[in-house]
Design a protein that fits this description.
Blueprint: H1 3-32, H2 39-53, H3 63-86, H4 103-114, H5 124-127, H6 130-160, H7 174-199, E1 210-213, E2 219-222, H8 228-236, H9 257-281, H10 285-310, H11 337-350, H12 365-376, H13 387-407, E3 412-413, E4 416-417, H14 420-445, H15 448-451, H16 458-473, H17 488-517, H18 534-568
């Protein structure tokens, strides 16, 4: 480990902290302030969309209506994305002459991008036409991220609002939240970011692929395409789907250390800012900072462990006559090194992004354990755009309930009682995630068609399976690349897992929003457990870790943990 690596981690986190307040304030004004910022620029297209779609922006929805709108829109997105892939050989902007995508792969990809997972069971430059990349996948990068923001806003409103006059409890309007997320936030930031990326060497064109002959006389094909425009939103929306197969390790996607730093910054920008937005909505900024602090502790702990682990040589190569001074460099780009790779891996799995600049399959057992645990914690360590906040707020509800049991008082949060209904919804949310991961991983581990995609066997092979289904259920999208993700078994099962991991968990979240929105807030009493201090932040971190540890620790001991001890013993499985 070098001082420069630690400086990179510290500087990155400090920049995230600095951006949290101004961006969080901007988001609050966009969604909650009647005088929205830059309305002169964005107001007209916003009103035009409402007029075309027949949306009344002044009419709010109940939690049930909000849920129906979200699910209906998402099903439409799956259908459109599937059809574009199946018909891409007949559609324009296909200079490579690529054929239609196979049905199982098209299903997997449609669900993947609609659920903000961006799991890629294909090579982008050899499978998807320019039109598919832009009209299907990049479009989904915007709307799936906007949908996540919308759910976070709905839950936040349910927690902080008192019932509206007339007894109608509402949590906002899905169509309005979706539209404003795109027009005021995602689209302008993506335009600016795309120009910055182009200035750094990220390509952006509609040219045919280039055929060249190297100095050695070898013919080579250089892929082209509209990369910069997809690159920004893949990070900003915590989507992660790369234009090229190797994602942000490709020099056309991530050419310099500056673009690497900027990509990492974009991943955390909105998830971190939403904690400040939540504090403003709650009219107590400490509530937002407590959530930010809990996320920060989990993130920094993971980053330090990953950097430490990757600074050591790979046990499989330790006996070879190599210079191990740079640490474990297998599967990493030299221009990023161990620090830039370990930090990127921690960030992209702390958020549900899935973009990678190094191959996680080549990490040391403990280095690969950090990204896996980040996902298994529910990806609430800042988490995905919107998804991180609403996931952490569910843990807040659970933590408040536990605190109430410890002090012998009725659990309260922001003046509202936490009762049996909210706890049942919270536990459904918490149980769906491990049920999906462990069920499908166990199924795959005992059948030949489930084991056939593995590039490794033994503990590392089990880790590949656990990582794949964790990535799908957590809507992350990264993978231990030793697994062959394109088999029909994985295409179908991962599609099911991604769909359930997104929408079967959003439904109880919105149910909590509706239940809490119906409750009147009462002033805190002398026995109320404070939720805006350091003590509650510690409790919240403990609840997140304990839920993850109790659920997944047995499986992890059979995978990366036992692999680590085998390597320490100087043996290879």
């Amino acid at each position: 480990m070098s001082p420069y690596g630690w400086i990179q981690i510290i500087v990155y986190f400090l920049v995230v902290v600095v951006l949290t307040k101004p961006l969080g304030t901007y988001l609050f004004r966009v969604f909650e302030d009647k005088r929205r910022p830059l309305s002169v620029i964005f107001g007209r297209p916003e009103r035009l969309i409402y007029r075309i779609c027949g949306v009344d922006e002044s009419r709010e929805q109940t939690a049930a209506a909000y849920t129906v709108s979200l699910l209906t829109f998402s099903m439409f997105c799956v259908l459109i994305t599937y059809c574009i892939q199946r018909l891409q050989h007949l559609l324009p902007f296909n200079p490579q002459g690529l054929g239609q995508v196979a049905p199982d792969l098209a299903f997997n990809t449609a669900v993947s991008f609609t659920t903000n997972t961006n799991w890629q069971a294909y090579g982008g430059e050899t499978t998807m036409s320019y039109l598919t990349q832009m009209a299907a996948l990049t479009w989904q990068n915007f709307v799936s991220a906007a949908a996540g923001i919308a759910v976070a806003l709905a839950l936040s409103r349910g927690l902080v609002r008192s019932p509206a006059s007339g007894g109608k409890d509402t949590v906002g309007n899905f169509w309005v939240d979706l539209t404003r997320s795109i027009i005021y936030v995602l689209l302008p930031l993506s335009i600016i970011g795309s120009l910055v990326f182009v200035s750094q060497g990220v390509i952006q064109n509609l040219s045919a692929y280039k055929g060249i002959t190297t100095l050695e006389g070898i013919k080579q094909t250089i892929a082209m395409g509209p990369v910069a425009s997809q690159e920004v939103i893949k990070e900003l929306g915590t989507n992660g789907g790369g234009f090229f197969n190797v994602n942000s390790a490709h020099p056309f996607e991530n050419p310099t250390p500056f673009t690497n730093f900027l990509q990492m910054l974009l991943i955390f920008a909105i998830p971190a800012a939403l904690t400040y937005t939540y504090g403003k909505m709650a009219k107590d900024q400490k509530e937002g900072w407590v959530i930010f602090a809990a996320m920060a502790v989990l993130f920094l702990s993971g980053a330090m462990v990953a950097y430490w682990a990757e600074s050591h040589p790979n046990p499989a190569l330790a006996g070879l006559p190599l210079d191990h001074g740079a640490g474990n460099m297998e599967g990493k780009e030299v221009r990023f090194g161990t620090a830039g790779s370990a930090l990127f891996a921690t960030i992209t799995t702390a958020a549900s992004c899935g973009a990678v600049n190094a191959m996680h399959d080549s990490f040391t057992p403990l280095g690969g354990l950090v990204p896996l645990i980040n996902i298994m914690l529910g990806e609430v360590v800042f988490g995905g755009v919107g998804a991180g906040l609403y996931g952490m707020l569910v843990f807040v509800v659970i933590a408040v309930f536990i605190a109430g049991l410890m002090v012998g008082r009725t659990p309260e949060y922001l003046g509202k009682k936490i009762e049996a209904r909210e706890i049942k919804y919270s536990m459904i949310y918490a149980l769906i995630f491990p049920l999906l991961i462990l069920t499908f991983a166990a199924w795959s581990a005992v059948v030949s068609y489930g084991l056939s995609p593995l590039g490794n066997h033994g503990p590392h092979g089990l880790t590949e399976l656990l990582y794949a289904f964790s990535s799908g259920a957590g809507n992350n999208g990264s993978a231990f690349a030793g697994i062959n993700a394109g088999t029909p078994w994985l295409n179908i099962t991962m599609g099911i897992v991604m769909f359930a991991g997104r929408f079967f968990m959003i439904i109880p979240v919105l149910a909590i929003a509706g239940s809490m929105a119906a409750k009147k807030a009462i002033p805190p009493g002398p026995g109320t457990f404070p939720t805006n201090g350091i003590l509650f932040a510690i409790l919240l971190v403990g609840v997140v870790i304990i839920v993850g540890a109790l659920t997944f620790f047995p499986a992890l001991t059979l995978g990366p943990i036992v692999e680590h001890f085998i390597g320490q013993a100087g043996r290879l499985f």
